What does this fold into?
Amino acid sequence: MKVATAIERLQKGDHVHLGFAKGERRWWFESPYQVIPEHVFYAAVRDGAVAVIEAGDSLFGLKGNSQTWLVEEQSNG
It folds into this structure.
């Protein structure tokens, strides 16, 4: 997956999910299902193209381990 594809889906409002498998973080879009390589997810949000926030369903109660990530709504004023 390209970074531009991840940004496009995030901008459309698609939710990103985080899980763990074999001790590694796994990121994906739910519907339609599409795996997001970790470096692609971080590149998409790092450059400020989209701002994501945790939905509050944090794994193990730790910040940064939310199972669902949403695009932060921008206020116009």
